[in-house]
Fold this protein.
Amino acid sequence: MPDNEQSSFQGALSGKLPIRYAKNQLTIRNASLLASEGTQVKLVTKEQKPLVTIVAGKKGGKETVLDKLNVRARFNQMPNQTASITLQEFSTTLFGGSVNVTPLTFKTDASSPLVATVTLDKVKLFEHLILPANLHGSLYGDLSGKVPLTYQNNQLSISNATLRSSGGGSFTLNNTQQSSNNNLSRSDQQTTYAFSEPALTFSHLANGATTVDFTLSEFRQKSGSNDFKFGNPKGTIHFAENPREPDVMRLSNFSTNFFGGKIALNEFVYDIKKQEGETIVQLSNMPLQKLLDLQGTKKVYATGALKGNIPIKLKKGTVEIPDGALLAQESGQIIYATSPEERAAAHQSLRTTYEVLSNFLYQQLS
């Protein structure tokens, strides 16, 4: 796929469009639009990089894209007044779900705001989306919600829109991340990320600043034999808050359940262009046994839970963890399981250590 592309359309559309125009009133009733096999709309970013492709059309046949399209609009032209168009009604089915737009008035004067709310209900859009090839992913499920829009002076803004889905998706990336100092090791294997039941509340200002509150039912990360499940992750993502720093994003008030404990962070600021960022990850009620299992520790069994703060610094593909600390959140037990043969073969001092660790009770641990 070439690096630079243009948004494009290919395929064939057909349908019916019953139109009636009388006394400055335009009416459309029960219009429909069908797409033939291979029909697609390819969208790219402003940098001409692939964004998403919308596909339609059944194999060997046609697919209904729009159905029951109903529109009523009035053209208003009074002497010495700005001409306007009032959209009195707009409703349709789109990919099996419904789309409705609140009444609105469009004036030819560009300074006049155009305000409307688009309501979606169970639109099966995800199954018609193809993600960029580098993501190796797919989406499923329907989409519902409300999107309040304002268009003025050639700028679009969105205020407290809500979108939700009972579906989800997954995508796979090749790992290129490398650690530094005393933590983590380089991995060239693939990592698959999956999420379910997303719910978003978002706003987009005319200057480009965007805020997204999100919650998921579950997020999974699978790489090799590791399969991590994060329950009910939620937080707020801020994009382009400062017009002078459009490449800086900020994650705030993030939390998720993990291994029966909780992971949280107050703020994470990341510069996408510089690939730099840092944060402090807060852990609480993390089962000690789960953390030992993550390290691949053998013959060690433990009860109790830990808490602590883990500073993390990201810089150009490296991960650094300086001065992290974990403390016991509750008392527990550590058992180092040895066989009778190991104890018999050990010298006296090591045998004593084995005996102590065979049932080590702790109240404080760091």
Q: What stands out?
A: Residues 348-357 form the longest helix (10 residues). The chain has three helices and 31 strands. The helical segments are 288-294, 340-345, 348-357.
